[in-house]
Amino acid sequence: xxxxxxxxxxxxxxxxxxxxxxxxxxxxxxxxxxxxxxxxxxxxxxxxxxxxxxxxxxxxxxxxxxxxxxxxxxxxxxxxxxxxxxxxxxxxxxxxxxxxxxxxxxxxxxxxxxxxxxxxxxxxxxxxxxxxxxxxxxxxxxxxxxxxxxxxxxxxxxxxxx
Length: 162
Ligand SMILES: [Zn+2]
Known about the structure:
The chain has a four-stranded parallel sheet, with helices on both faces. By secondary structure, the chain is of the alpha/beta class. The chain has helices at residues 15-23, 36-45, 55-63, 76-86, 113-116, 122-127, 145-161, and strands at residues 8-10, 28-30, 49-52, 68-70, 108-111, 131-134, 140-141. Residues 101, 103-104, 106, 134, 136-137, 139 line the site of zinc ion.
């Protein structure tokens, strides 16, 4: 992903959106619980785009020259479309080598198959050749059913953003 990709901080009520953005390769800071003041400080200091549903927070952020996206509704496709209408996103695609960990936002790294043996179910080992790991939380990724669902999501999203 290019150096110019937007980076985000996602408000605590939007955990699913944060996870999606990470898997799509966007650096998205998220805390399940954080107070508004800290949220604003991180957005400001790290120049992150604040994504929230909270109107009061939006007003506070705008006063401090923070880029804000106001989210409405619970549909994730629409939520990402709302982001894209304010902050132009790069071409949306899903490649595991570009993804960030959905749990902790760290970049994923490719890992040899023999090194994940014993750490994932045997059935997965038999069916897949390529694996990725998050070196921060040790979560292992492969292009299984989650990935297929995500690809479908990306197709729908690209149709919506046309
Ligand atoms: Zn992780």
